[in-house]
Amino acid sequence: MAGFLPARTTLLSTSCSSYVPSMSRRSKPQPKIDDAAFPVRVFLRVPGEGLGRDLDALHRWLADNLGHGEYAVHAGGTHPTAHRLEDRLVVYTRDPDAATALLKAIPTLELSDGTESVTYTSPALPFGWK
Predict the structure, then answer these.
(1) Which of 74, 86, 84 lies closest to 112 in space, CA to CA?
(2) Is 77 helix (H, G, I), strand (E, B) or coil?
(3) pLDDT at position 79, please?
(4) CATH classification of 30-116 is 3.30.70.2750, yes or no?
(5) Cβ distance 89 to 46 under 8 Å?
(6) pLDDT, tens digit, 9 for 90 and up, residues 24-61
(7) Which residue, 23, 60, 47, is CA-closest to 110?
(8) What is the mean pLDDT of the chain?
(9) Sequence ranges of the domains in the chain
């Protein structure tokens, strides 16, 4: 046992100089990456029954008109409105004209306007939209 301790100490001291701890790293979530990368965001209201066929039409329109890499789609979370919590979908694009064209192409899509939220405050609207 006495011979084991010095050998172990020597082993640790020589290996520690080149030892780099391996830490498992998680990659950044894609929505955070897209949020930082794409300059245009469009929040869409998701009705209680979901988007249904509009979701298929949205993905088809984006793929056909913008092409992969020019847009991203993610869950947009929820936010309070005057009457309930509202689910949202967020579409990221690089071009504001593309966002406008999407809304014109699928007129049943509705913007999820965060300024309608009961929690929204602004110096321009200190008492909200009342």
Answers:
(1) 86
(2) strand
(3) 79
(4) yes
(5) yes
(6) 678 888 989 988 999 999 999 998 898 999 999 999 99
(7) 47
(8) 81
(9) 30-116
Tokens of 16: 């520690």
Query: With helix as H, strand as E and coil as C, how does 53-72 read?
Result: HHHHHHHHHHHHHCCCCCEE
- 57-78 pLDDT, tens per residue? 999 999 999 998 999 999 988 8
* DSSP 8-state assignment for residue 116: G
The DSSP secondary structure of 1-68, one letter per residue, reads: -TTHHHHHHHHHHHHHTT-------PPPPHHHHHHHH-SEEEEEEE-TT--THHHHHHHHHHHHHT-T
111: DSSP letter:
B
And the tokens for 34?
């897209």
At 36, the amino acid letter reads A
- Give the predicted TM-score (pTM) of the model: 0.72
Q: How far apart are the first and last CA of the chain?
A: 81
